[in-house]
Amino acid sequence: MKNYLLLLIWLPLISACGGDDNSTNEQTTETVIESTPPLTIASSYATKDTLTVIGSGITMAEISFNKAEIKLPANQEITIALKNESTDISMPHNFVVIKTGTANDVGQNGVQFKENGFINPADKNVIVHSPLAQANTTVYISFKTPPAGEYEFICSYPGHWGLMKGKFITE
Ligand SMILES: [Cu+2]
Question: Which of 98, 90, 102, 16 shows the shortest CA–CA distance to 60?
Fold first, then answer.
């Protein structure tokens, strides 16, 4: 009888505490998302040297880049602005220049490197990559284009590289 009474007293207390904890967690999560600064690398490059690539799509079936082919001069400093127009926070994108035919390898090798934007830092098939652009943000990547040749670009976010890809040509 004594134990039963104690249970009756404790149960409401426990559920009250649980409720408080839940609402605190939700608030914390929201604050973190709102206070995360855009993943932007400051750039002093002239606008004429900036190529804008747009990633978009709210569902996995819709994801795409707005370019199927990018042609640039070889060995030239360039800035690419990757604009993520998705409004869904579960749809980050990045821009990764890779050796032709290695999209699947680069994607698979990057899955476990979330902290590095889903790129294996030791991946020799990766020529250059941007940080992840979260939904509704733009990231900039400045680099010297590779020697004349045909390469590819992909988004290495898990599951995206099958649809988000194109030719990257320097000449
Ligand atoms: Cu993507």
Answer: 90
Residues 69, 29, single domain; the answer is: no
pTM, two decimal places: 0.71
What DSSP designation does 103 have?
H
pLDDT of residue 103: 97
Which residues place a Cβ less than 5 A from the ion ligand 1?
93, 155, 157, 160, 164
Q: Do 91 and 66 lie in a common domain?
A: yes
Domain shared by 131 and 80, yes or no: yes
With H, G, I as helix, E, B as strand and everything else as coil, classify residue 47.
helix
* CA 136 / ligand 1 centre spacing (Å): 13
Q: Which pLDDT tens digit goes with each residue over 19-41?
A: 444 444 444 333 333 333 333 33
Residue 97 lies in a domain: yes
Domain that holds residue 83: 47-170
Is 60:159 a contact under the CB 8 Å cutoff? yes
Q: What's the confidence (pLDDT) of residue 27?
A: 40
